[in-house]
């Protein structure tokens, strides 16, 4: 029964990990930008949800798409006005730029919201699903389900709409896409905006589970990075699979090696995977 | 008239020397490396509030009395970004470049221990605001003085409370952040529990930066403990408290340190804060009369509320405490000379708003009993020591 509970714990946190990683994976895959700003955008989404709950009593789980929409505008703006200028430059320049933007946003949030840890307290709390020998926190299940629905909608948008086809075309070959009349700079801005949208949604969903603070951004970024490498760069199903895989591996890692080494097992498997299958579980060659 | 370059230079040198000496005479410069950004920024902000309240009071009263002089206090801050190696560099810079007279420590046991080597190297007395692990003070240094008592002063009274109020409690589970102070504290709790015949059925560590504690808590639950102790910092303990409730973990006593003494922790966990026990080195209900610039604990609390609009917690209070200890030592020495001030610090016997402060030969405070606290009806109540208790200890399960 202990094993079953540990497995369910892994699944429950894995769904949240997937939400954290999808936007990061999209930006990496389409723009070839390692978006160091991603963790800060998740935290900003958390603050938006926190204040919406505090001011108007809106449940953050329902507020997630609104937080995402606000961040979409911010993300598209940042890409259009700032990052687009250096897209043709070497990869390290965009990395450095998003690192700088990350410092700027983190410290702005520190100045505006203070460093105190906050948390959304739902009244009444959502409680737990009691399945006899195992228990599952309801908020994690709801957050995972809503997150997966939003990820599904994003995947649908990429597959079925003209905008989505344009994003995929730019991802495959920027120059050929431009020759076909696709506005590459605009597509970049929208793709980055969609990544920020997912970050905003993830932040709002996480605000009922984890404490919110500007200093939490690095932790989220680290998770997103590992999940994307594990699942496969640029692949949305890969990010989902990577999220669940990391959740379950960490959970069993804590059981077998002790909580102190929960991440050790995850990183060992990651190294093994990189040696055997460098493109990740569901990644396609060429996005690395 | 022909003016040679030499007289001019000599004049400049004299003028510079004159200005330096007057500069040195009318103010006291104290260096304070602070974690303003990074993971420890909440604590860094709190320490700074404590320092500045003390500075305001001293300077409003004319400054620190050194013989027949009054020295205004100037604090020089540098942000070490919650990175200990940076704190070490900045402490060195404060001593060698900024020529500070004295140092306040960075936050926490780990950074304090690392920085104390720099203070020792240059012979500059450093007052530590927030170090309580014996491992910080076992290096034989003569320039390190900490206002916190050691970690066993938390574990002993709480273990005694559990033993006397819950004679049936037998099984103890400990989950510790793998970090200098939280781990040292957890080890003290293990010792205190074993000393009283309790069985430690679970002792695990979690890594710094752990986001999710479900797996560790699932294993903890399986050991069916009566008394659960988790050490870490405020973000860890918010998540741990919530996940313990999610997993329906119920012990008769839930001890979490450090976090529940902060109002932010209580706000973040809401009703789950009820009956959680904790301890801290200061609480606004303590009633000390003092010889320092505040006059009493109550006056300190009142002034803090006036300036910041909230009651001070122990970190904010410790920021002001290092100031008053240094001030009392300098005033008693009648000098800012390092050797003289160090001698006064070693003598101890300072009556401060924080408590009576004297230091063991190792430099750690050993002169007061920190209060044991419990959250009751959303408020922090003191349950031990009896003289200042505001409520009775409660043992009801919390989930």
TrEMBL record, chain A:
Keyword Transmembrane helix recorded: yes
Broad class of where this protein is predominantly found: membrane
Location of this chain's protein in the cell: Cell membrane
CDD domains registered for this protein in UniProt: TM_PBP1_LivH_like
Protein's GO biological process: amino acid transport
Keywords from the UniProt entry: Amino-acid transport, Cell membrane, Membrane, Transmembrane, Transmembrane helix, Transport
Cellular-component GO terms for this entry: plasma membrane
Membrane topology classification: Multi-pass membrane protein
GO molecular function, one term: transmembrane transporter activity
Pfam families the record matches: BPD_transp_2
Transmembrane segments: 6-29, 36-56, 62-84, 91-115, 141-158, 188-212, 224-249, 261-280
Family of the protein in this entry: Belongs to the binding-protein-dependent transport system permease family. LivHM subfamily.
Protein name per its UniProtKB record: Branched-chain amino acid ABC transporter permease
């Amino acid at each position: 029964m202990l094993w079953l509970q540990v497995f369910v714990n892994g699944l429950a946190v894995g769904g949240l990990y997937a939400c954290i990683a999808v936007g990061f994976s999209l930006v990496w895959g389409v723009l070839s930008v390692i978006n160091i700003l991603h963790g800060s955008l998740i935290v900003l989404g958390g603050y938006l949800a926190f204040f919406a709950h505090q001011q108007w009593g809106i449940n953050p789980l329902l507020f997630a798409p609104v937080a995402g929409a606000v961040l979409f505008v911010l993300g598209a703006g940042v890409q259009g006005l700032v990052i687009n200028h250096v897209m043709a430059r070497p990869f390290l320049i965009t990395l450095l730029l998003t690192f700088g933007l990350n410092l700027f946003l983190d410290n702005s949030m520190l100045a505006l919201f203070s460093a105190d840890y906050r948390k959304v307290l739902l009244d009444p709390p959502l409680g737990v699903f009691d399945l006899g020998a195992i228990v599952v926190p309801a908020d994690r299940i709801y957050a995972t389900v809503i997150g997966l629905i939003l990820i599904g909608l994003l995947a649908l948008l990429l597959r079925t709409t003209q905008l989505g086809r344009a994003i995929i075309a730019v991802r495959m070959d920027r120059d050929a896409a431009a020759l076909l009349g696709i506005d590459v700079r605009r597509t970049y801005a929208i793709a980055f905006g969609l990544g920020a949208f997912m970050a905003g949604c993830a932040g709002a969903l996480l605000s009922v589970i984890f404490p919110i603070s500007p200093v939490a951004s690095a932790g989220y970024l680290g998770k997103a990075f590992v999940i994307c490498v594990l699942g496969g760069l640029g692949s949305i199903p890969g990010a989902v699979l990577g999220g669940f895989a990391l959740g379950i591996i960490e959970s069993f890692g804590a059981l077998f090696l002790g909580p102190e080494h929960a991440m050790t097992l995850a990183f060992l498997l990651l190294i093994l995977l990189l040696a055997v299958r460098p493109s990740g579980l569901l990644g396609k060659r060429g996005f690395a | 008239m022909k003016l040679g370059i030499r007289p001019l230079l000599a004049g400049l040198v004299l003028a510079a020397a004159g200005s330096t000496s007057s500069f040195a005479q009318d103010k006291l410069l104290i260096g304070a490396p602070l974690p303003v950004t990074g993971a420890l920024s909440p604590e860094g902000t709190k320490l700074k509030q404590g320092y500045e309240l003390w500075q305001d009071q001293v300077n409003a009263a004319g400054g620190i009395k050194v013989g027949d002089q009054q020295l205004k206090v100037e604090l020089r801050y540098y942000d070490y970004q919650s990175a200990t190696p940076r704190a070490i560099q900045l402490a060195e810079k404060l001593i060698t470049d900024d020529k500070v007279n004295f140092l306040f420590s960075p936050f926490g046991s780990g950074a304090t221990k690392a920085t104390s080597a720099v203070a020792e190297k240059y012979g500059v007395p450093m007052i530590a605001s927030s170090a309580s692990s014996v491992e910080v003070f076992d290096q034989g240094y003569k320039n390190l003085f900490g206002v916190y008592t050691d970690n066993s002063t938390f574990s002993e009274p709480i273990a005694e409370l559990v033993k006397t109020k819950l004679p049936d409690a037998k099984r103890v589970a400990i989950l510790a952040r793998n970090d200098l102070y939280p781990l040292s504290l957890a080890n003290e709790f293990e010792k205190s529990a074993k000393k009283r015949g309790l069985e430690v059925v679970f002792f695990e560590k979690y890594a710094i930066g752990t986001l999710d504690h479900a797996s560790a808590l699932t294993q903890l639950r399986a050991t069916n403990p009566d008394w659960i102790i988790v050490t870490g910092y405020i973000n860890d303990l918010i998540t741990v408290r919530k996940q313990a409730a999610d997993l329906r973990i119920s012990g008769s006593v839930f001890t979490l340190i450090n976090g529940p003494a902060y109002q932010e922790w209580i706000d973040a966990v809401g009703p789950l804060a009820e009956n959680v026990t904790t301890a801290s080195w200061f609480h606004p209900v303590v009633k000390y009369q003092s010889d320092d610039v505040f006059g009493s604990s109550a006056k300190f609390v009142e002034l803090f509320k006036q300036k910041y609009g909230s009651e001070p917690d122990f970190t904010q209070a410790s920021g002001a405490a290092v100031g008053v200890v240094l001030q009392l030592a300098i005033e008693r020495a009648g000098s800012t000379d390092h050797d003289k001030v160090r001698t006064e610090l070693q003598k101890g016997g300072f009556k401060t708003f924080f408590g009576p402060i004297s230091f063991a030969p190792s430099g750690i405070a050993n002169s007061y009993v920190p209060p044991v606290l419990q959250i009751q009806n959303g408020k922090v109540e003191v349950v031990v020591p009896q003289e200042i208790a505001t409520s009775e200890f409660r043992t009801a399960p919390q989930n």
